[in-house]
Amino acid sequence: MSKDNSDIEYIRGLDNVSRALEPTLRYTIAATAMASANKPHLIVHLVSYCKEVLSEHQMVSFVAKARESLLKMISTIGAPRVINGTAALMDAIDDRIKDQLPKQVQRSRDEYNYDDIHKRGLSLWNIVYSKQAEKLESKIGGWYPDLIEIIQTDLYGRLLSDCRILDAKSTELCTIGALVPIDVPFQLKSHVLGAGRLGASPEDIGSARVLAQVIADH
């Protein structure tokens, strides 16, 4: 069996480890984990598989969610892997799907009000970290005040808490998908708890973790 055929069969098998997740979210988490694991070539095979099993409407939804998740995960896996993952995703889809995606910048200077964005980011921060939120804020701010400012305002405020395409629960599940391949247990534990606080079921969380682990191990 060729490597490409082996990869395709492997991707077909991902459905068996993540049945709790609805398909477009399942494949969004998978694409996120593939980018995190530095395996953008797998995203190409994932898109080919999605073309077989998703309707056109679902396909548009998957691609919109996947590229939004990748954008948000700049906060987790860094710009180079996000760029490579997004390139693989967009190069693999048909023009018919591309034509149905938003073409205007959503996070423009016109919508950026510092106080509103900071407040929104702080709200999500407090939900994700709950009783540990203030302690963690103080610890990170003690290391470097600019670090907690950037995390809460730009990452949590401008990126992660923007729910226009990917809601807060789904974003946390995608964050789990991004964290598993980079092996950061403390942050993973925090976001597993955060996903639960945002409404994800134990089955959702378990599926996201196993899916990302299978991708990381491939």
Question: In words, what does this structure look like?
Answer:
Helix content is 76%, strand content 0%. The protein is mainly alpha-helical. The chain has a single domain, classed as AhpD-like, CATH 1.20.1290. Helix 9 packs across helix 10. The mean pLDDT is 94.
Topology:
Layout: H1 3-13, H2 23-36, H3 40-53, H4 56-72, H5 74-77, H6 79-92, H7 95-98, H8 114-129, H9 133-143, H10 145-160, H11 168-182, H12 185-197, H13 202-217
What descriptors fit this protein?
mainly alpha, AhpD-like, 76% helix, 218 residues, 13 helices
Brief description of this entry?
Helices cover 76% and strands 0% of the residues. It has helices at residues 3-13, 23-36, 40-53, 56-72, 74-77, 79-92, 95-98, 114-129, 133-143, 145-160, 168-182, 185-197, 202-217. α8 crosses α10 and α11 (168-182) runs antiparallel to α12.
Which architecture per CATH?
Up-down Bundle
Q: What is the CATH level 1 assignment? A: Mainly Alpha
* Structural classification: mainly alpha
| Total domains | 1
Query: How much of the sequence is in beta strands?
Result: under 5%
Helix/strand order = HHHHHHHHHHHHH
Helix content: over 70%
- The backbone outline, from C-alpha atoms, is globular
* Strands, total number: 0
Distance between the termini: 16 Å
* Average pLDDT rating: 94
CATH third-tier fold name:
AhpD-like
Number of distinct helices: 13
Rounded to an integer, what's the Rg over CA atoms?
17 Å
Q: List low-confidence stretches.
A: none
